[in-house]
């Protein structure tokens, strides 16, 4: 069983489009995250989401918005895609905001042309 | 601002040749330091959490240590399957959202 899954694995789209990436965890965790890994392999936190409380990294453009239909899912919506949005996006989860270990999904490689 | 710097960026070892990876950090009160392993095309896989200076943790051929300014990941007698990128991350004690700050990683290549 996959603990944290993401779809799609690859996403190619044009500038200006709106797209979504889905994330699901079957670990029963309360907290989920989105990270961005750029071409230089740096992983940067974008969002933390716990019990309907959203904490946003201040550097994230407001074109990015996470949406959580329930505790097991945290989707990432991106509006008006730009070339600089090309990266690998990782979803992760942890038991709660106190537990340190975060478990990552396999990533979604987004390419904006 | 929390910062994490890993060195070297890449490390080539022969099978059985032990070495260490370095993670230097600057953080406003350390809540935890984490090591992850990332294989190509996959998400990071959790390895260790260290909470305070002097702490050590081991797993198979890996041992992580922590001081007040840096952490080391020691690899003893590595095997080709240890080849991966090793990521270090920190979490500050004043940190809303349990967010991690990652270093750039060390790409380890172990040749048979």
Task: Describe the protein.
The complex is a heterodimer of chains A (113) and B (112). Chain A is mostly beta strands and 113 residues long. Chain A has no helices and eleven strands. In chain A, the strands form two sheets. In chain A, strands 2, 4, 5, 6, 9, 10 and 11 form a seven-stranded mixed beta sheet that branches. A four-stranded antiparallel beta sheet of chain A has the order 1-3-8-7, with no helix packed on it. The mean pLDDT of chain A is 91. Chain B is mainly β and 112 residues long. Chain B is 0% helix and 58% strand. Chain B has strands spanning 3-7, 10-14, 19-26, 30-38, 45-50, 56-59, 62-66, 70-75, 84-92, 101-102, 106-111. The A-B interface holds A 4, 31, 33, 40-45, 47-48, 50, 55, 57, 90, 92, 94, 97-107 and B 31-32, 34, 36, 41-46, 49, 85, 87, 89, 91, 96-102, 104-105.
Question: Which key terms come to mind for this protein?
Answer:
heterodimer, A: 113 residues, mainly beta, seven-stranded mixed β-sheet, four-stranded antiparallel β-sheet, 11 strands, 0% helix, globular, B: 112 residues, six-stranded mixed β-sheet, five-stranded antiparallel β-sheet, 58% strand
Can you give me a brief rundown of this structure?
The complex is a heterodimer of chains A (113) and B (112). By secondary structure, chain A is an all-beta fold.
Structural class assignment of chain A: mainly beta
Silhouette of chain B: globular
Q: Write the element-wise H/E pattern of chain A from the N-terminal end onward.
A: EEEEEEEEEEE
Distance between the termini of chain B: 41 Å
Overall pLDDT metric of chain B: 94
What is the subunit arrangement here? heterodimer
Present the secondary structure layout.
The complex is a heterodimer of chains A (113) and B (112).
Chain A lengths: L3 E4 L2 E4 L5 E7 L5 E7 L5 E8 L2 E4 L7 E7 L2 E6 L8 E8 L8 E2 L3 E5 L1
Parallel strand pairs in A: 2-11
Antiparallel strand pairs in A: 1-3, 3-8, 4-5, 4-9, 5-6, 7-8, 9-10, 9-11
Chain B lengths: L2 E5 L2 E5 L4 E8 L3 E9 L6 E6 L5 E4 L2 E5 L3 E6 L8 E9 L8 E2 L3 E6 L1
Parallel strand pairs in B: 2-11
Antiparallel strand pairs in B: 1-3, 3-8, 4-5, 4-9, 6-7, 7-8, 9-10, 9-11
């Amino acid at each position: 069983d996959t603990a944290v899954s993401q779809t799609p694995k690859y996403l190619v789209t044009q500038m200006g489009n709106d797209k979504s990436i889905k994330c699901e965890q079957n670990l029963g965790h309360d907290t989920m995250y989105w990270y961005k890994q750029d071409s230089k392999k740096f992983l940067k936190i974008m969002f933390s989401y716990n019990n309907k409380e959203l904490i946003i990294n201040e550097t994230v453009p407001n074109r990015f918005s996470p949406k959580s239909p329930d505790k097991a899912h945290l989707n990432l919506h991106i509006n008006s895609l730009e070339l600089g949005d090309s990266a690998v996006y990782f979803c992760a989860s942890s038991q709660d905001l106190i537990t340190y270990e975060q478990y990552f999904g396999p990533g979604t490689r987004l390419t904006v042309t | 601002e929390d910062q994490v710097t890993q060195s070297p960026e890449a490390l080539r070892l022969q099978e059985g040749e032990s070495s260490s990876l370095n993670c230097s950090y600057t953080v406003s009160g350390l809540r935890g330091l984490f090591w992850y392993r990332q294989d190509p095309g996959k998400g990071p896989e959790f390895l260790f959490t260290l909470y305070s200076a002097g702490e050590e943790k081991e797993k198979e051929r890996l041992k992580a240590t922590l001081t007040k300014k840096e952490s080391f990941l020691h690899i003893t007698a590595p095997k080709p399957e240890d080849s991966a990128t090793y990521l270090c991350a920190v979490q500050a004690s004043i940190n809303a959202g349990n967010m991690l700050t990652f270093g750039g990683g060390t790409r380890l290549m172990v040749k048979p």
